[in-house]
Each structure stands twice: as structure tokens, then as C-alpha cells.
Amino acid sequence: MKWVPCADNLFAVAIHNWHGNVKYGLSLDVGDCVEIIEECGQWYRGKKPKKVGIFPKSYVHIKDISKSDPIVSECTQVLREWADIWKGLYVERETYKFTTLRKVMLSLLESRRELLSAMLTQDQTLELQHNVISKIDWGNR
């Protein structure tokens, strides 16, 4: 069989843990987001931030990002970027910055969860989106 390129911007979310214990395997934890690059039979080749490898198709669920709210997508991306910064603050023993960033990240996670729940009125959604944007702006200073 031959590896076939997938459509651009094809993303999947891991629904099972997988150790990646095969040659070129990409380990997955439940909830990991993976960009799909190619497919071959019952396998995908994809990448997580900084890692590329293969994994079984049955371990992921394809996510249609065209329906995704751009604020939620931005929030997700920012949280990934900030996670590296947060770890660095821990290593450098920057306690105040570490604690402050942790609080903002937890608040963003909660806001993201609420936006994804689709249980808010239109006014509540707009207010929450503005709140998320202001927190992201604060963190990027």
C-alpha cells in the first residue's frame, strides 16, 4: 500500500491512548490534537507540535474545523503556546509569574469549555468572547 496525502487542514482528536510502540509511531494521549498529513490503509501519518509519526485510524476522531469558532481555535493555540512558557517559569522558579499565568490559563480553559458547550445566549457568548480576547491580549504583552 502507498501513503496518500490528505486534504489540507485535516485535524483529529485522540479518543484512546496509544503508546506508539511501532517504528515511526506517534504516541497519543486522549485529547491530543493531531494534524493529519497522509493515510495508508488503517493508518494515519500526522503531527503533533514538534513530532511526526504514524498511528491507527481507530484511535482518533476526525474534527471538522470549518465549523469551529475562530475564538475557540485561537484560545486553543494560545494555551498550547503558553504551556511551554508556563513550564519555563516553573523551571526558572518565577513563582509569581508562574502562579499568575496558571490562573489566567485555567480561566481561559474554563471560558473555552463554556464556548464549546453551546449553552450560552448570543449576548453571553459575545461577552465571553470579548473576555477571552482581553485575556489573550494581556498574556501576549
From TrEMBL:
InterPro entries attached to this UniProt entry: DOCK (IPR026791), DOCK_N (IPR032376), DOCK_N_sub1 (IPR042455), SH3-like_dom_sf (IPR036028), SH3_domain (IPR001452)
Signal peptide annotation: none
Domain of life: Eukaryota
CC per GO annotation: cytoplasm; plasma membrane
Xref: SUPFAM superfamilies: SH3-domain (SSF50044)
Residue ranges constituting the SH3 domain according to the UniProt record: 7-65
Gene3D superfamilies assigned: Dedicator of cytokinesis N-terminal subdomain (1.20.1270.350), SH3 Domains (2.30.30.40)
Record protein name field: CSON000630 protein
